[in-house]
Design brief:
Number of strands of chain B: 11
Order of helices and strands of chain B: EEEEEEEEEEE
Strand content of chain B: over 45%
Oligomer: heterodimer
Largest sheet of chain B: 7 strands, mixed
Shape of chain A: globular
Distance between the termini of chain B: 34 Å
Helix content of chain A: under 10%
Number of strands of chain A: 11
Structural class of chain A: mainly beta
């Protein structure tokens, strides 16, 4: 079945640094989604991408839908402590199917 | 007001017991979901209901039985609990079947001893 490979698995950065993470697959997706999960909470949608090549921003977050439709990346600029959490990519490949990547755990060093 | 609420937040029980988790959404959404998040934080869909009808059942053991009494509620009943059922279970809802944005509840942490 379809799988999403999300990397890196974990990131340890200093406050103020930029962050980049990505998701790849051997399958084509119609939609790419990026969610964030804070500790003890459910995931919250950050950005949704609908067309190949699309670049979308949400504040300090920028995400792109890969031109091949098999990948997506998420960038966070000038990280702050509240950016800590788990970031999930998710891809929709049929109307009824969304699958999630295994998450990127973002840690910010004091 | 909580958009998607789940009860209980924590559930600790013995192997072999039967337990239920309740979910309610006050967003007026048509579609609701159950996800399981394992200890490695891998999030996997279990069930999807649209207007009280089962749409997705992702190779989940039949010990798990969802029930949707109305559009705003999707409960999960688990029979004969096993150690491997320990996980965080998330309920979610979306406006319609095929909507991309899903609103997740706070999760229910199930521990089977």
């Amino acid at each position: 079945g379809q799988q999403l490979n999300q990397s890196p698995q974990s990131m340890f950065i200093q406050e103020g640094e930029d962050v980049s993470m990505n998701c790849t697959s051997s399958s084509i997706f119609n939609t790419w989604l990026w969610y964030k999960q804070d500790p003890g909470e459910g995931p919250v949608l950050l950005i949704a991408l609908y067309k190949a090549g699309e670049l979308t921003s949400n504040g300090r977050l920028t995400a792109q839908f890969g031109i091949t439709r098999k990948d997506s990346f998420l960038n966070i600029s000038a990280s702050i402590p509240s950016d800590v959490g788990i970031y999930f990519c998710a891809g929709r490949y049929r109307d009824d199917k969304i699958i999630f990547g295994k998450g990127t755990r973002l840690h910010i060093l004091p | 007001d909580t958009a998607v609420s789940q009860t209980p937040k924590y559930l600790v029980t013995q192997m072999g017991n039967d337990k239920s988790i309740k979910c309610e959404q006050n967003l007026g959404h048509d579609t609701m979901y159950w996800y399981k998040q394992d200890s490695k934080k891998f999030l996997k869909i279990m069930f999807s209901y649209n207007n009280k009808e089962l749409i997705i059942n992702e190779t989940v053991p039949n010990r798990f039985s969802p029930k949707s009494p109305d559009k705003a509620h999707l409960n999960l009943h688990i029979n004969s609990l096993e150690l491997g059922d320990s996980a965080v279970y998330f309920c979610a809802s979306s406006q319609a079947f095929g909507s991309n944005e899903q609103f997740f509840g706070p999760g229910t942490r199930l521990t089977v001893l």
